[in-house]
Amino acid sequence: MSRAHHPEPAPFTRAQQRRRELTLATIRSETGNPELKLRGERFYNGAVYVPISAAHLQAHDLYHDAQAQRGRADSISARLLFSDPDVHRSTMPADPVAGMLYDLLEQFRTEALLSRNHQPGTQQNIRHRFDAWSRLALHANLMESKLGILIFTVIQIVRSRLFSTPIDPEIEDLIEATRAGITPSLGSELAGLRRNKDHQTFYGRYALSLAEKVSNMVSECENNEDGSERSEQILSAFPLLLNTDIEADNTYSSVTGGNSKSFEMHRLQYRVFNREFDTEIDACSLVRKAQLTEFRSHLDKRFLHLGLNLREISRRLLLCLNQKTRDGWQFEEEEGYIDGSRLPQAVSSPTERRVFIKEHFVERPDSAVTLLIDCSGSMRQHMENIIHLVDGLVRALGIGGVPTEVLGYTTCAWNGGRPYKKWLMTGRQAMPGRMNEVCHLIFKDAGTHWRQGSKNLAALMKGDIFREGIDGEAIEWACARSRQIDASRHLLLVISDGSPMDTATNLINDDFYLDNHLKQVIASREKQGDIITALGVGVDLSRFYPLNLTLDIDFQPDSATFNDVITLIAESVRRSDGKRRS
């Protein structure tokens, strides 16, 4: 569902998500800050964005280097531990080249402090990360110009001085001439950086002076070169030198984000141009009975071959969902509340102690689980595996007595449908809000036994229900239905492969109108106590759903996948219960 006109990004995988989780856990441990969060590749301290823009921490080509990933985690911890962001921002130069260098010098300072104060393993990780980035730079277009070599040389010189380590011989040979030419003019700054790395303010003065000197060198170099070699072109040849947000990278599939002008213009009030054609329908009514039976027969054959232990899956799900529920009283206890009906016995037989009662508690799930499936066009290719995953969850929860609903959302038409035609005929109102006609599908309601509901899931095999997706309204609808179920805990599990997408709505409003509404709905429903989490099929959904699980695009609904889903549910319930208690 990507909107950008770039080559198709590679699918985001469960392995990448695990690495990201390990990175976050490492940084939380080293900094002692449990409030740190990751949304996509962005770090947040609570709700406050923490920019991580140093060049050597951005290289996506190092994702498969485990030690480089550990080095990145240690380097980010160093920045969070030893740098005051307010002091840093107050003296940050506006010039792009100077700003990039100034930020990088501050990152080097914090890494030097962490390397000095921590174990050899941390030092090795940080060194390995920088060395791996340096080798990457050698093979980039950055090294094919005087400007690129100049900037790269400055980076290597400063790093060597701060860490008291030699420059890699291969790199040293390449930069020797440039180093000999610029070192005399930077001597005082280099000495000042090394002397003051324990003091951010003093260090910053020398860092600013060095960054501005190098920026001036770049300007002089530009003036001496022909017009084809501009600093913007050189920096774009190795774009992660600049303080660009890592989210701009498109190397893997991740939902994009931004602010919607249309949403802001309407004071964050979601608007719908026309609801006349919206529908809510039993999905089975869209499929002929014979075809539904044929679909179910095909699915059952494969489901049997999966070899799932539904009783064990049910047991593990109940461990996540069970909570103590009051269930009357226990009588004839030796402690507790005095039983009024036993008072005469207490008087006549002073040695009789079983005259008390206690509240009786039992472990019950007391939860309702709703599975909400994105039925947009791109989901069709994944649907058979998704059906088996949903089927297994519904059966296991049904065995445990947990009420479930399976819902879906799509649109009745492509490209706006009948509301779009009405909009064209009625003056083309500016930024009218949601345009298409939504279609909410019920595959299994809470009152349907899981055996019958399992059969109805076969309706997901019908290809022509898959069109576009308006997620925010679907989540509101699903949560409202869940609230009608008698349970103290309501959990919604969304299964999707990307951002909300409706072509007509995006064209007439803007690209992020539906995105912003989705974020608003999730925040609102969670405040009301709903537990919302998501499974992303080949995509990272963390920008929308703080708790989410990435499924590989070719995932199999096997025991390992169910274990991951159960772990996600357990964590979402644990966090929700923690919030309620606090």
Q: Quick one: biggest sheet? A: 7 strands, mixed
Order of strands across the main sheet: 4-10-9-8-11-12-13
CATH architecture descriptor name of the largest domain:
3-Layer(aba) Sandwich
Q: If you average the pLDDT, what whole number results? A: 86
What fraction of residues sit in β-strands?
A: 5-15%
InterPro entries: CobT, CobT_VWA_dom, NorD/CobT, vWFA_dom_sf
Protein name: Aerobic cobaltochelatase subunit CobT
Organism: Grimontia marina
EC number: 6.6.1.2
How would you describe this protein?
The protein is α/β, with parallel strands linked by helices. The protein is built from 20 helices and 13 strands. It folds into three domains: 51-240, no CATH class; 262-317 and 365-581, Rossmann fold; 325-362, no CATH class. The chain has a seven-stranded mixed β-sheet, with helices on both faces. It has helices at 14-31, 66-82, 85-90, 96-117, 120-138, 146-163, 169-195, 200-224, 231-237, 261-265, 289-306, 310-321, 343-348, 383-399, 417-425, 450-456, 471-482, 503-508, 513-527, 559-581; strands at 36-39, 42-45, 48-50, 279-282, 323-333, 337-338, 356-364, 367-374, 404-411, 438-444, 489-496, 531-537, 548-551. Helix content is 50%, strand content 14%. It comes from Grimontia marina. This is Aerobic cobaltochelatase subunit CobT. It holds the Pfam family CobT. InterPro entries: CobT (IPR006538), CobT_VWA_dom (IPR025861), NorD/CobT (IPR051928), vWFA_dom_sf (IPR036465).
